[in-house]
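call fold(seq) -> tokens
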Amino acid sequence: MARKRRLTGEPALHAAFNKTDHAPLLEAWGVQLSDDLLRLALTHRSFANENDNLPNNERLEFLGDAVLGLSVAEQLYRQYPEHSESDISKMRASVVNMYALADVARGLGLGPNILLGRGEMRTGGEDKHSILADTVEAILGAIYLEHGFDTARATVLRIFADLIDNAPNVGLTMDWKTVLLTKINGLGKGEPIYSSSAEGPEHDQVFSSTVAVDGKILGTGEGHTKKESEHAAARVAVQSLAESQQ
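ret:
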């Protein structure tokens, strides 16, 4: 019997998309999207590249990033009139960073809906921080295109409400590198040593960092900038030290 030929290109895209019931995802977002836009928003470049270089969600991600940034910035400006520009900037960073977006994605059940290439599927791509965060932004871009800015902004404010409400508590104390340095100095340990590397195209690099103390790696982290990945690694290290002292 002849071996069944693997689908590729548009047939593969439609087949993969139709395997999943997306109604729960759209219900969680509180908005409806056409199949065409939702399918594009969920198409990671790894899937697109494996299937005849189909369009992927990076252009939508670009739009969604702008919608998210402006919506959050405006809400923080209005909600916290007593805070300075510097404070608002830090608060915004606590809401729109990759880890915060990934947590939002997990709460919405986004991961299993993302269309990934075989390599990313084997390495747990549906739960990678960078992929989850980028797909959140892509869906926001799709919402903006289909429903306009007002609906996209309302969606942002609804699903990011808790993060925005907690932004003064998190954003103004999120210098994890300083927290780590203070903590290890108090324990009489050596200086933290950070090591970083980058992967991906220049316009969409993901940085990975580790932080070691006295030759032992205490934390790893990822980010779209070296600074963000180092802060993420420092946060994990602080948590590791806290757990080791319990």
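The radius of gyration is 20 Å.
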